[in-house]
Design brief:
Protein name: Ankyrin repeat-containing protein At2g01680-like
CATH superfamily of one domain: Ankyrin repeat-containing domain
Low-confidence stretches: 212-236, 343-347, 371-406
CATH class of one domain: Mainly Alpha
CATH topology of one domain: Serine Threonine Protein Phosphatase 5, Tetratricopeptide repeat
Pfam family, one: Ank_2
Keywords: ANK repeat, Membrane, Repeat, Transmembrane, Transmembrane helix
Number of strands: 3
Membrane topology: Multi-pass membrane protein
Main location: membrane
Length: 406
Amino acid sequence: MEARLEAASLAGDLGAFLQLLQEDSLLLDRLSTTHHTSNNPLHRAALLGHADFASEILSRKPELAQDLNEQGFSPLHLASANSHLLVVKELLKVGSDLCLIQDKDGFMPIHTAVIKGKMVEFLVDKLGGDEEILNSKDEKGNTILHLAVARKQLQMVKFLVSKPAIQVNSFNLKGFTPLDVLLESPSEHGDLVLGEMIRAAGGKKAEEESPSEAPSHPTQRAINPVRTSPMRSNWKGHLQYFFHLGHKAKTSRRALQAKQENENTPGTLMVVATLIATVTFQAGMNPPGGFVQDGTNAGLAVLGGQLFGFLIFDMVGLFASLSIILLLICVVPRTKWILTNFLKLVWDLRNRDELVIDSIQLLFTKEIGMLEKKKNGWSKYYTDGSWRSYQKNSHCRRCPCSCRFY
């Protein structure tokens, strides 16, 4: 029987439901006593928008409208969150007290409607001037205006502040008014319009609402007899408000720029490290002076005796740049701990970059020196484009000027 009732409620089959009631007239009475933690037929009808089915259930057993399912939602919560207008109308015929039912998180149906961004205007208009419901608070003390402002729902805030029954300066458990909620939230486009909208409706910050402390000494009253006029105080509040929003926007821009720089830095380091690794690898595979082509020493470096220092600098630059590439590859959002732990064993990444640059400088300095100085001799570049070597302190056999080289 219950399986057939569940199938009928899911399909919205009113004929099948009436047939079940003819077979068992106490079917709904048993549901009201046994289904306290699961979806009853009214929950399913409200969730799926079966208005006729919901109307028939409510006409026979209106108490089912107050039942909560296993998620803590009443039928009105489900209908409001899913914008099933006809079902909401049928439920409100039972009574506006259904709007005061709280789910397990302390949200009433109108709070759920604001969070989902649906059905708010209908519920507010339907409730009219019922200030108790319109200004009801969730478990954190937030009213529907707090929730709408926190979600930057511009049109909804505009609608709510236009209603006289809405209290624009109510406090939540943190002591925040709706304007405070706006100022404490991350800055977004449209915050100025939203803030001016709340200000125009009489919204204030918590510090503006709190009464000022009375002077503790009579002399203070004599020294400062002039009080700030309401207009001046109001302008001061506006200036503080705009200054705060401007500071938030500036801070957000700085944070965004810093984030973009941090995101771009690994890519730049990867390009530089790859270039250095390529250059140093190529230099190691093709050392200055080349290789001996003939004889018993074929395949050996021509300047083999002088390559030790060159290769040291080359290997330092190569392995340092490769380690940087390895670190950058390991830096993914879920494995940042790899980089953190590894950097405890090696130099700071910036110092490592400096090491690579220094190694490259020494590498090319060494190479230039080796190209100009050969073993036991010096070289000179002639106008005919040839290099000629001579022994130190010896006369040039082929030089017409009989020069000496030191």
